[in-house]
Amino acid sequence: MFTDVETALSGVIKPYYSAIFLILSSIAYIFIINSSWNVSPDSALYLSVAQSLARGAGYMFNGEPHTYVAPGFPFLLCLVTKIFGTGFLGYRLFMALMGFAAGVLAYIFLRMYVGRNTAVLLGGLIMLNYAMIYNSTYILADVPFAAFVFLALIVTVVGGGSGPSLLWSTILGFVLSITPMLRINGIAIAPAAAFFLIFSWGAVPRFKRFAHLLLILILSYLPFILWLIWKSGFPHSDSEGAYLAAVSERRFIDQTTIIIRAFVGYFSESTLALTGLSIKTGVLEIIAPLVMFIGLAKSLYSGERLLAPLAIIQGAGLLLSSAGERYLLFLLPALYLFLFKGTLVINSTFKKFTGKSYKPKTILLSVFVFLLIGNCVHLLVPIYQARTALAPNGPETPRSAPFFRASDWLKKNDANATVLTTHARVIHFLTGTQTINLVRSGVPEHKTWIKDAAEIAQLIKNKRPEYVFWDEKNSDMYRQVALASESLHLRLKEIPQA
């Protein structure tokens, strides 16, 4: 299916290229390891739940059983906590290792699925990919998810070539089961793998083929189904709902708006994920995705039955939430292959109409060099930020500093306080205090923000916070908080940010 790409790159690769990419990737990941924290609400949530598990307190967040994120990534972080403690250095080391492992696994998959020439160049791009390295500085599930998806693809390709066996089907089912426990869109990895295997096992007797596919699918979904059953008995949470409910209960106009915005947004986000360049001109960021779409269509037409279905299924799912380059990390091998495939299609089409064309080897190498330069130049930014972090076991960048200052003040002045804020996850993680969130998760968009003064007043009356942590970007909301507290004849104390 990608033999034209592999053939075009023949004679280009030198034996030492792989070693160069490995060395450069190792250096990049070593340089992003430090003991600081890039603040993120999702990161605070993962770390809070993980540390709760490590303490033996259960799957808890902010004083209640947690229902929003599946326990896969918190469990991995729990293991890190058990080994390294609660300092940020252990978590950053783990994330760097996962990013490096993702690059290596992507290379192995491409070597098995396409060939050595393609694997060295595209695997090298993924090893030095800006988006992968940048997101490895955040303690989030996206990079580990990518690594486990690449591992699942490797096991899938092995089985597709060797035929089904009980041991292999069990291993694949186990590996696939990890992906939805890390991210919700992992539920769509198993169907793509099964679709590929149906075609790969054409010579296998029908009963045996479908028996193994059924075993793989059962094992793939069993942990996630058990998680859904288990959490169904949890008490209702005011601030942390469930992802599936958030999507299914959306209003039609909200869902339509989200799909349109995500579709438009992924032009620039996919360009960033592929090239390392953040382009938002309205024109230039369309080029790479369009070439990629051409390659996807050509691959599907040519009978590609693994990466094309995977990209289509996952693309549909990604449109259900806001666009982000980190959500594309697990698709990087597919996206780069489609980009190279699309480049060859355009080149051959140009020749058909004009009689002129570039040598396939020349044009693919030119694209590769452009992508490599774009990614390598931009990845100097996260490396610089990591090496110039503000404080050990503190904020990495000035953007994160106000949360640490507010948390230090709170721990010093009232460690048992209850805080009303839009940053409930971060403040709770840094202080351990009870927080009341003005921004709900796991609910439809029209219920996310608590903005009405009457609703805020009811929340204050029920939860009785003593403090409020405000954000200048949400000054209108905090005016509503002031009105609500005044209506109850209460005065919430503001936590200073500086």
Q: What does it look like?
A:
- The chain has 498 residues and is mainly alpha-helical.
- The protein is 64% helix and 3% strand.
- A 4-stranded parallel β-sheet has the order 4-3-5-6, with helices on both faces. It has a two-stranded antiparallel ribbon with strand order 1-2.
- Strand 3 (418-421), helix 20 and strand 4 (434-437) form a beta-alpha-beta unit.
- The protein starts with a helix and ends with a strand.
- The relative contact order is 0.12.
SSE diagram, text form:
Layout: H1 3-8, H2 17-31, H3 41-55, E1 60-61, E2 64-65, H4 72-84, H5 88-113, H6 116-127, H7 130-135, H8 142-162, H9 166-182, H10 189-200, H11 206-231, H12 243-248, H13 252-275, H14 287-301, H15 307-318, H16 332-354, H17 360-378, H18 380-387, H19 401-413, E3 418-421, H20 424-431, E4 434-437, H21 453-463, E5 467-469, H22 475-487, E6 493-494
Helix pairs in contact: 2-5, 2-6, 3-4, 3-20, 4-5, 5-6, 5-8, 8-9, 8-10, 9-11, 10-11, 10-15, 14-16, 16-17, 19-20, 21-22
Short summary of the structure?
This protein is mainly alpha-helical and 498 residues long. It has 22 helices and six strands.
Helix-strand topology string: HHHEEHHHHHHHHHHHHHHHHEHEHEHE
What is the terminal-to-terminal distance? Answer: 58 Å
Uncertain residue segments: none
Gyration radius, rounded: 24 Å
Strand tally is 6
* Shape designation: globular
Helix count?
22
In which range does the helix fraction lie?
A: 55-70%
Give, in spatial order, the strands making up the sheet with the most strands: 4-3-5-6
Structural class: mainly alpha
Mean pLDDT: 91
How would you sum up the major sheet? 4 strands, parallel
Q: Report the portion of residues in β strands.
A: under 5%
